[in-house]
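Dear Dr. H.,

I hope your travels went smoothly. While you were away I took the liberty of generating a structure for the chain from your last submission, since the lab meeting agenda had it listed for discussion. I wanted you to have the full record in hand beforehand rather than looking at slides cold. The sequence, exactly as received, is reproduced here:
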Amino acid sequence: MLDRGSKKRAIIVFVFVLIIFLLGYFLYQIITPDPTCFDGKKNQNEKGIDCGGVCPVCSDVFSVQELNIIEKKFVYGGNNTYDGLIRIENPNNTVGASSFKYTAKLLDENGEILGEKQGQGFILPAETKYITLIGFAVGIDQNPVQLEFEISQPKWEEFSQYQKPQLSIYNKRFTFLTDRVGSEIYGIVKNESRFDFNVIKVNIILRDENNSPVALNSTKIDVMRSGEERDFSLIFPYQIQGEVKNIEIEAEADTYDSQNFIKTYISDERLPFQEY
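The corresponding predicted structure, in token form, is as follows:
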């Protein structure tokens, strides 16, 4: 049997070891980053590395077709700038890309790069949408002849059901300014979805009688409530190179971004845009 002194020493050693263990565990929790869907590890409740469970569905669960680029044009944007128009199509009926990266290059006849833009986009299942690239600045004597566009790193997500935001455009109107050098586009966008959005983007494409784009622009509308109507107008402060015969206006809201919702009317955290 241990005497009183030995018991006391054993208790002190046990307490000391316990304190060291707790301190080590506390420090480990502080310096160890929280698991995410981008840490290259199979953790949380993931079915694979950074997929399944709380993360996007694993790509090997479903097959996907690549996004199609169905229109790729550029137009004069005034003041030695050019604007690019890209139209992409998602051929997948139940799979969307919550994000993808893109690179656009404006080239001259020798293949030299006159301007370059990089960005990020998204697309819903079976959706066709525009990407407008405003403001490729070029030199006075530089003449672009080609627009290259590449998509990379799509992050695919499979949906069991989804509802595209109902953002309707009304009262489209194109008018010349009094000097006829500039022009103005006007319209009304209505949020006919059951959701409030923090940001809505509006793309404007003006086309000639051959349906070729002659001018592009875009704008953003902040904090748009369900059922709300908002008007917008944009000025083209230069002479458009072509006669405007058709006006296309497309409004979009990023439904993959939970921060883009003001969930006033919805108690459930899972949104019908994002059932997967």
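Two observations you may find useful: Residues 191 and 227 are 5 Å apart (CA to CA). Residues 264-276 have pLDDT under 50 and may be disordered.

With kind regards,
E. W.
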